[in-house]
Amino acid sequence: MSCSGLWPTNPKAAGSNPAGPASSRCRAAAEEATTPRSRNARPRAPAGLPRKVRPADGTSIRSFPDEGSRDTAEEAPSGTGGPPHCRDRSAVLSSRPLFGMTMDATWMAEALAEARKAAAEGEVPIGAVVVHDSRVVGRGRNAREGRRDPTAHAEVLALQEAARSLGRWRLSGATVYATLEPCPMCAGALVNARVDRLVYAVPDPKAGAAGTLFDVPRDPRLNHRVEVASGVLAAECGELLSSFFRSRRGK
Would you say 182 and 143 are in contact if contact means Cβ atoms under 8 Å apart? Predict the structure, then answer.
């Protein structure tokens, strides 16, 4: 129905509401059309559309993802789209475990500190620590020159101190961190000490016995096997060794 036929041209002749309810609806529509709106006013939803209902807990409708968009943040490539501080959120939302690698780097830094002490003493910079129940129970650094002892390797000295700290030779539940891959003697000592895990930084192409030349810790013929991981702080530990031998060759 058109409003032109219900809206009188002379309001005085028509009275207050000559056309009944239909005229009232048209008058309200005209007044709304001519009333200035605030810039921030929210437009009304068209008739017949359901109104948005805010959840009882007060959260916004926008906080609920659409169906099938739950993994969008993880699948989106980092560095594209969104504000700069949100472009790498996929790394934060990743389900990959990061805690283990963080702790390995923390303990390897302790072994690296022992290696630097060895370098300051004129020894080949190799260090090792033994960790049990989230604390260092044994430390060692290469001391063959100072002790005049061919068995004074960092891993052996760290195992000896750990055995004294724990009061037992069987070091089950312990992890050994070494800046260089253990030699056959040290790898055998790890097996004899019954340690659970070995983490070393850089491989030893001339004497490595934890996967390079031999694999003593994981040899199935032995009565104990050790879990092995490598590559933690490899750049830092490798540079310390390289700089030490460069300085020796320069003399």
Answer: no
Distance CA 205, CA 190 (A): 19
pTM greater than 0.90 (yes/no): no
- CB atoms under 10 Å from CB of 131, counted, come to 25
Residue 130: name the closest of 151, 158, 108, 102 by CA: 158
CA dihedral angle for residue 111, residue 113, residue 117, residue 120, rounded to 10 degrees: 130
Closest-CA residue to 155 (of 119, 192, 122): 192
Residues in CB range of 144: below 8 A, 6 or more apart? 123, 124, 150, 152, 153
Of the residues 114, 155, 161, 181, which is catalytic?
155
Tokens for 103?
A: 């702790």
Q: Tokens in use for 5?
A: 């036929």
- The position carrying tokens 């991981």 is 229
Active site residue 155: yes
Q: What is the pLDDT of residues 167-223, one digit of tens each?
A: 999 999 999 999 999 999 999 999 999 999 999 999 999 999 999 999 999 999 999
